[in-house]
Amino acid sequence: MSELHLNLIAGQWVGAEDTSENRNPSDPSDLIGVYASGGADDVARAAAAAATAQTAWFEGGPQPRADLLDRIASMIEARAQEIGTMLAREEGKILPEALAETRRAAQIFRFYAGEALRVAGEALPSVRPQVDIEILRAPLGVVGLITPWNFPIAIPAWKIAPALAYGNAVVFKPADLTPGTAHLLAQIIHQAGCPAGVFNLVMGSGARVGATLVADPQISGISFTGSVPTGRGIARAAAETMKKVQLEMGGKNPMVVLDDADLPLAVAACLNGAFFSTGQRCTASSRLIVQAGIHDAFVAELSRQMQALRVGPALAEGSQIGPVVSAAQLQGNLRYVALARDEGCTVIGGDALGGTGYFQSPALFLGADPAMRVAQEEIFGPCAAVIKVDDFDQALTVANDSAFGLSAGICTGSLRHARAFKHGVKAGMVMVNLPTAGVDYHVPFGGTKGSSHGAREQGRHAVEFYTTVKTSYSYAG
Questions:
Q1: Is the CB of residue 270 less than 8 Å from the CB of residue 302?
Q2: CB under 8 Å to 57, separation ≥6 — which residues?
Q3: Residue-wise pLDDT tens digits, 145-172
Q4: Could you name the active-site residues (predicted)?
Q5: Distances (CA, A) of 323 to 90, 125, 276, 398
Q6: Which long-range contacts (CB under 8 A, 24 or more apart) does 41-46 make?
Q7: What pLDDT is stored for residue 3 in this prediction?
Q8: Helix segments in 241-391, DSSP class H
Q9: What pLDDT does residue 476 have?
């Protein structure tokens, strides 16, 4: 029997009524472990423990919070190989990418160790004599964190670290598909000396654990990363208890390639943005908008390099793209490949590769029209639609023709076009001669339109979600 991995509630490792198996998408016969799957009662106990512990955690001052986050960062670094291997094994990300993500998580915790000591306020004179005003930031209280499977340590890190840094207590629900990495992170937070109840892990389904988190009156805020339908449902449900919400959802990110682009640079940026991490990134370049003069040469070279990518098991040396995360995700991707053909695209690649895992060759949909479903709907797989345009103005119009607005990129040698794109594209993040995927941890992350709702994540802007503003007046007369 595989060891049962437990939830962490009020500083104790506890079981749940149900369990779930965690299997390797590179080889589904590989049982990684069995994990507790909690329910409403577990969430209620975790929220109560967090509410009890939060006040002392905040009132203890910023130094213990900074010290804890710094210890967590060091422990992640010390166990990076173990964590990265787990991440690759359960999510399908190739090992170099998994190790890089693990190191990024450590950097995030260390960054917020410093931020815990830099929570700024304001002092202003009143319009009334002998009255002073202080504008301070106070923690929300208890926050519920719901994270996706595609970045199973980086996204939890950039939610948990600021939540703790600013004096909140946490109830953390990781994705069903990747409980192993989350459990290792929870172990580290516990072993680093986090006070009982300040951090709680409740694994389980979104329908039970996630929905109960959103409904629990003891929880003051929900930070969620996942699908658009789920995010919208959370926003509606959170309104019932007036919770603060932060939602990061989908993307259908455009990468514009103009005639004056450096061809090797443009191909490298699109290859990375569209297909690395198996295309399972909300910032992936899923719409390649290419000017007519460079189109044929760009498509020929990108197709050649794409077809040369080595798809294989995540832990195998030499693999450049791992498996799709699950059988359901693979079947969804394949339906979009078939749809692209039905809509009139010429499809290069996109086949299921067979074998024991959920492997798919990367795909280009040539001759796509902006109105096609494959050019409008998020696929979340190694698939990119190529749309030919006549000039920059048309490229910008097509780039903005989306319900999403997370990340957008342009490859060009023209400063004028780069500047016009940065100002004109409707996206929260803009890349010039860089892949649309790949962001730094010390600056804001988030989008516009259907991609994001609420305050930005990451960097110093995270304080906007995890705290509330308190204005104090003092009379000195």
A1: yes
A2: 65, 164, 167, 168, 169, 195, 198
A3: 999 999 999 999 999 999 999 999 999 9
A4: 248
A5: 10, 60, 11, 31
A6: 42/7, 42/9, 42/14, 42/16, 42/202, 42/204, 42/209, 43/171, 43/202, 43/209, 43/212, 43/213, 43/216, 44/212, 44/216, 45/9, 45/10, 46/7, 46/9, 46/10, 46/171, 46/200, 46/202
A7: 83
A8: 263-275, 292-308, 327-342
A9: 84
pLDDT for residue 27 is more than 90: yes
| Cα–Cα distance, 429 to 100 (Å, whole number) | 21
Return the number of other C-beta atoms located less than 10 Å from residue 17's C-beta.
Answer: 11
pLDDT tens digit sequence for 45-72: 999 999 999 999 999 999 999 999 999 9
In 276-366, where does DSSP find H-type helix?
Answer: 292-308, 327-342
Residue 31, number of CB atoms within 10 A of its CB: 11
pLDDT score of 143:
98
Write out the residue limits of the CATH 3.40.605.10 domain(s) in the chain: 4-249+451-475
359: closest CA among 25, 42, 47? 25
Instruction: Report the alpha-carbon distance of residue 77 to residue 368 in Å, rounded.
Output: 44
Largest CA distance in the chain: 80
| Sequence ranges of the chain with CATH classification 3.40.309.10 | 253-432
* pLDDT value for 184: 98
What is the C-alpha to C-alpha distance for residues 477 and 249, in angstroms, rounded to an integer?
A: 52
Q: Is 248 considered catalytic here?
A: yes
Smallest CA-to-CA distance from 447 within 287, 283, 261 is with 283
- Could you say which of 91, 101, 248, 378 is catalytic? 248
Residue 249, judged by CB atoms within 10 A of its CB (0-12, 13-18, 19+), counts as buried
By the 10 Å C-beta count (0-12 exposed, 13-18 middle, 19+ buried), 74 is classed as middle
b/e map of 107-142 (b: 16 or more CB within 10 Å)?
bbbbbbbebbeebeeeeeeeeeeeeeeeeebebbbb
CB distance 396 to 424 below 8 Å: yes
> At 473, is the pLDDT very low, low, confident or very high (cuts 50, 70, 90)?
very high
Place of tokens 């690395």: 276
Residue 137, helix vs strand vs coil: strand
Whether residue 56 contacts residue 195, with contact meaning beta carbons closer than 8 Å, is answered with yes
Q: What single-letter DSSP state applies at residue 354?
A: -
350: which DSSP letter?
Answer: -
Across the range 224-240, mean pLDDT stands at 95
Chain-wide mean pLDDT for the chain?
Answer: 97
pTM of this prediction exceeds 0.85: yes
The domain made up of 253-432 has a fold known as Aldehyde Dehydrogenase; Chain A, domain 2 (3.40.309)
Rounded Cα distance between 44 and 440, Å, is 35
1 pLDDT more than 60: no
- Which pLDDT value is given to residue 355? 84
